[in-house]
Amino acid sequence: MDLEGTARCLAELGNVWRLRLFALLVRAGRDGLTITELRNELGMPASTLAHHLRGMVAGGVVTQERQGREVRCRPDFKLIEAAWAYFRDECCKGAPSTTTRVALPARRGTAAR
Length: 113
Prior knowledge:
Helices cover 52% and strands 12% of the residues. With 113 residues, it is α+β, with helices and mostly antiparallel strands. The protein has a 3-stranded antiparallel sheet.
């Protein structure tokens, strides 16, 4: 994964509805959910769901598989893991560890902690 790939991945998730949709798929695990199940869970019109899924499929964060009359959607865990690893390893290089406490400057009019 590189910077451009990570940016595309994050861009496809950069919407409240897409994040909700993606969270549902992640919680469903490797089995994913059908479009009907997603629509029922989200209470979203079919055309709106189709719009968001098209972008997510084009961006590679979601895969689809036709099963008879239904289409099953799954998150691409490998892509998301690769994007997160890039973000963590490359973008956060040299940043203080999340377990390291950083002393914040005192605000005006308050004593230092």
